[in-house]
Amino acid sequence: MQLTFLGGDSGPDGSPRVYATDRGTFVVQGYRIEDTETLSQLRIPGHETVIEIPAELVKYFPRD
Q1: Mapped to the 3 state alphabet, what secondary structure does the chain carry?
Q2: Is the predicted pLDDT of residue 22 greater than 90, yes or no?
Q3: CA-angle at 12, arms to 14 and 10, nearest 5°
Q4: Domain that holds residue 53
Q5: In this predicted model, what pLDDT tens digit does every residue of 37-59 receive, in sequence order?
Q6: Structural domains in the chain (count)
Q7: What angle do CA 17, 19, 1 make, to 5 degrees?
Q8: What is the pTM of this model?
Q9: Percent of the chain with pLDDT over 90
């Protein structure tokens, strides 16, 4: 998978960040959610995870 850095308010060496892939998907680096109460509200298969990102990070996603 090839990643293209799209942005992040802390630059390419910080977190959180957004990347586009050569598969037509996105990779998002954010904050791991470990709170059991929050996780109990979701149905997450064992091969998946969820993260939290600030709303400001959305500006880096393409709009088309």
Answers
A1: CCEEEEECCCCCCCCCEEEEECCCCEEEECEECCCHHHHCCCCCCCCCCCEECCHHHHHHCCCC
A2: yes
A3: 45
A4: 3-60
A5: 999 999 899 899 999 999 999 99
A6: 1
A7: 135
A8: 0.79
A9: 72
